[in-house]
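Predict structure. Chain length: 429.
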Amino acid sequence: MITNDTTTLLKEFINKNSNTADVQWDNRTIPQLRFNPYTTNQEERQTAAHYFLMAASILDDTIIGYPENARMLLVHLNTTLGKNLFEIKKAHLFEEAIKKTYFYHELGPNKKAAAENLASVNAFVKFKAEHNLLKYAQNFNNPKTLLENLAKNIPALSGPHKDRAWIYMRWMVRPYPDLQIYNHLHAKDLNVPLTKENTNVAACLGIIATASPALWRDEQTATNARQKLTDYAKTLFPQDPAKIDYPFFLLGRTLKQKPLTHHTLKAALYFLEHMQKITGQPQTYYQKMSHYKSGWEKRTALTLLRMHIPYGYETISFPLPNEVYTPDFILEKTIQGKKIILEPHFEMTKRQARKYALFKRTYGHQFLLILLLKNDLIPLYHQRKILTDDVADDVWPIEFIHLLAEKIKRGTYRQEPTEQTNHNSHPKT
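Prediction complete.
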């Protein structure tokens, strides 16, 4: 049973994080969009309405892997295809362009569906909406009737995929930080999308019995669950139920692969609240699958992806005296109650080492810092006294990141005292 204090914590979390721009257009995230999503220019608003309808059509883990990849893919296509992005109606032309992306292998197992979905959106916009989504939307007096029309004409937004359409309606109808492009429609009439992240929170709250994929196998089951979630949201925000959507997305990621209970939810809320006080930042949790700063970072990311170990990449910055530290990888896995940080380096300086030592002294009670370094350089760093005992909790050869990841996933990783660790022996343990 959800207690009043949990409800209070949850409502505070929603209020603090509902002003965070969606990852699809957040200007802090790369790559940058090629247009201003908040523009007041009518032509650019048409572009935004069309562009984000395309984004919604592919917003599925099985297609693009993570929501961030939808942004990456569309920005890439907009860059390479220009205005043709909005004109192509043959799936094979999209597929050719998508296959040329350097991050193609990082998309989901059903990545081929992206081309078909994007082509079907363009066909709808041309033949049904006559290249004017803003005027077309005026034919409908509430979000649901417009959504049903979209679902009828675009297979990627119909049936078990209807929640993609509700995400789109949230983007188009809600005020800032959403886009409110269809400003004749009202936020009070929105449903809360039934996403995987939202169902994690809903299951913890007892709103639904399970967050199982079975929810989406039957349209009526999904409709009932979505209505229950929306009804709950209306008890918190009667005039704006979809306000909970993006905060629940952030919170639901934190709950991924954890027991979905009241106690887990409360612990997550306390942790996120504490982190927000420390960092002074909203708890955005982005998983940027590319644009890593080095090959070492990409190697680490691909290893974590292959082994299905959830992580955030440069998600939080920690204030330190006279500087700020932004960890590369923060894992959802914990060891003795501490979240794991992986910090890969091709080369490391004394200045960086001092920063890590300061971070360890300041936040070491909550985080376990593991440096990933080139195996043959580790003894050299020790010899030059760059790697002193206070710099990190552990040092691991980057060449054997797969073995470290396997130990972390299985729960067999054991931290050895840094000063006694023979780092070359790690892979044999």
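Summary: The chain has two domains: 4-254, 295-428.
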